[in-house]
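Here comes just one.
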Amino acid sequence: MKKITLLQVLCICMIAVLSSCSTFLTTAVPGSNIGYMPKPMVADSIHTLTSITGSFAGGSSPGIAFEMGMLNLSAAHTFKNFNIGYGLFGYAGKAEGGTDLQTAEDREQYLNNFKKNYAGAGLQFSIGLHNTSENGNTDFRYLSFQNSFSFENGPYTDFRRNTFNGKIPTYVAVTDRSFIWTTGLSTEIIWRARRNHDIKHAFKLFIGGSPSLSNSFRFGSSISNKDGANTVGWIFNYHLLIRRISLGLETGTTSNFSQKISLGYSFN
């Protein structure tokens, strides 16, 4: 009997909503590739910050569960009215899905059970505008433009390519893309505690998608609900910073439904 992790359990509801029997072979990283990049507040004495963050992420597309570890390195600069951030990230994990096929008819309609590894790397960049409260305790980062570029490879990527180039089972959709560009807009509010400015809380909402990814799918003849190929969605993030230590919680849905927990350390 297969072991199911907590993050996989949390994704079951989304899988059920999108499809009861279809499988969408998507890339693994969408939904996890717009990571939170810690940035100094305007009132801080230091306006440049370098951060390293480790994350564990889980996700799903219809019929598939993803697990991955991620490592992010980022730098950020805060000015009076705008901010910029940039960084690189790497990730590795596994994709698991498919059906225990019993008959020749099953093989025409579904994918057999599989468990495949993958790995990738990418870059991200953001530039945004902000206002600051009169007492300096709150920054309203009301509009930011964010981009992520990533490349994915490994046995799971090869499996998608082979499926894409062959006869596609009737209840399967697949993309052969390995390069993913995700872009969109975000808004964020960050504030520091009145009595202890070393404690900061932030909430951020990103809305965007991966252009052209949805058009890269090939669909089996029985796929009627193509929502699993939709790449436009949202990512919501909570970030806690205590001195140099940070904790992040994230959930979102683009082409994949995803959840992520992160722990980081920041340098001046």
Remarks:
- Helices lie at 6-18, 104-109, 155-165.
